[in-house]
Amino acid sequence: MKKLINSTDSVVTDALAGMAAAHPDLRVDLAHKVVYRRAAPTPGKVGLVSGGGSGHEPLHAGFVGHGMLDAACPGEIFTSPVPDQVIEASHGVDGGAGVLHIVKNYTGDVMNFEMAAEVCAEEGVEVGTVLVNDDVAVKDSLYTAGRRGTGATVFVEKMTGALAETGAPLGEVAKLGGRVNARSRSFGVALSSCTVPAAGGPTFDLGDAEVELGIGIHGEPGRTRAPAAPARELTRVAMDAVHDDLPLSGEVLVMVNGMGGTPLVELYVVFAEVAAYLREKGAVPARSLVGNYVTSLDMQGFSVTVCLLTDQLTQLWDAPVQTPSLRWGR
Amino acid sequence: MKKLINSTDSVVTDALAGMAAAHPDLRVDLAHKVVYRRAAPTPGKVGLVSGGGSGHEPLHAGFVGHGMLDAACPGEIFTSPVPDQVIEASHGVDGGAGVLHIVKNYTGDVMNFEMAAEVCAEEGVEVGTVLVNDDVAVKDSLYTAGRRGTGATVFVEKMTGALAETGAPLGEVAKLGGRVNARSRSFGVALSSCTVPAAGGPTFDLGDAEVELGIGIHGEPGRTRAPAAPARELTRVAMDAVHDDLPLSGEVLVMVNGMGGTPLVELYVVFAEVAAYLREKGAVPARSLVGNYVTSLDMQGFSVTVCLLTDQLTQLWDAPVQTPSLRWGR
């Protein structure tokens, strides 16, 4: 294993120090491992907190900033953040209008965010929660009861973030988050395994001419292995899985996401196939993201996430955002 | 070899179709393989054209848009664009104020852009050229007489793009480009080889515990091979090479660039070391980029590029930019 790290123990802390040095709009609490907007809390605004294991960058810390998250709690690599981190972050972003926790559906994340929410409630901080569970690949998985939360997290964080900036109350922001999740679906394909620094070797073995269909973002098994195939066929498998679960129609937001080790030129090849598939079904790729947003360390592969847009969701997507890894408008 | 492609012959065209589908602000001429701003040419503005082999995405097509390039000419993977592409693009962006060619110093690129510039001149289009040659690793290399052009290309394209938006004349924009290049230096480190689709296997072999110091963006050899080492040591080698060539002081713009297969979490680890190194030398990392900007397909590794800022360069860097892969301001 070769990695650009100083030691397997210090990866997350060292990377957070790098974020602090690179992004003056962020304030990084290295002791508690929380990344805040510099000006948090914003009085009168619902505070948005997300978090999860590290190794999925830019998720979540790369989405802290105006129009998106107020704080992110990175756990160790592929390890849930601890309740103390989430409690600390929730206090740090509470501007008097309550705090929304955005949680990907993994057993550890759900448990730790729940514990944190209980403590916050006892301490007088109102907390709402959005659970993201968009991955159609498997019903239950290695780390999850029910569906896994993957790419739709980016959509939920962006759209709830935009709504929170308007001063909307906690209940409304939470409800919107649930609606975005309900209208979104994902499916991932791996060409190679990731390598977790502390493990020192690949999480799973995949043959030279094999792919994993329905891969999870920690290398958890998907639906099945299959022979490697052209991008067109792999894309069709992913899109069929999405479409079978949530028929695609109207204007959609679509993300073609790299797993961390896949060149951008290949992601654009996939996007062309996704766009063609959508048009074939009578849907319109009205908004899009192509790049690395919810990664799995150095894994090669992609995931596709689709959200059925409404006028409100399109407006919230288009609203200004200023974070390290998503920024537009002003 | 497993890749998200349909065929080794169609990678570039298929990816361009994906760019066209994803980015409504771009106009993609698939026949000539040129990516334009939708509204090109802009009357009275110097038109900026760059290009080079594909496989370095988002360079260059990801930097087409307001405040940066007017057109990009992607060649086949790691292959220079042909003169006809550059001629076509130059005509397409000529708004009457002339056209600037931004060329990375590789023998094929230089020759083909020169041929295109001659034809353009005969046809009455005024052309200026900026040659980028920022890589301090080697004096000459496999594909280059003199220094290679790498990361500084992003700085040159951004800053000349910002100046061109103000209506500055061709001579002034070209001169600025030369100044940015002269004040910038780069050095790259590879942990693994890239795999070119048409070749079907790794470009070079690197041992399990070995890195290549001074790597080129096509996998050309660098200065030397060395044992794998902590990020702190690899960063120091890169920064020493830069500092030995151009003493670092004052405010600097610094890019920690991923080679395509390296997770973002590792790039932030490197950035923390770069920032510490700069402070040690009395320099200030006043502006930064951390991510994949000048890649080498799926290579694992990083490069660092530093530019000594002036007030003018900082202003041009901060000016609004709206491209697929760099955007801020308005």
From TrEMBL, chains A, B:
Tree of life domain: Bacteria
EC number assigned by the record: 2.7.1.121
Pfam families referenced in this protein's UniProt entry, alphabetically: Dak1
Keywords: Kinase, Transferase
Enzyme class: transferase
Annotated DhaK domain residues: 7-328
InterPro entries: DhaK_1, DhaK_dom, Dihydroxyacetone_Kinase
Keyword Nucleus: no
Presence of keyword Ligase: no
Gene3D superfamilies: Dihydroxyacetone kinase, domain 1, Dihydroxyacetone kinase, domain 2
GO MF annotations, alphabetized: phosphoenolpyruvate-glycerone phosphotransferase activity
Region forming the signal peptide: none
Protein name: Dihydroxyacetone kinase subunit DhaK
Originating organism: Sphaerisporangium rhizosphaerae
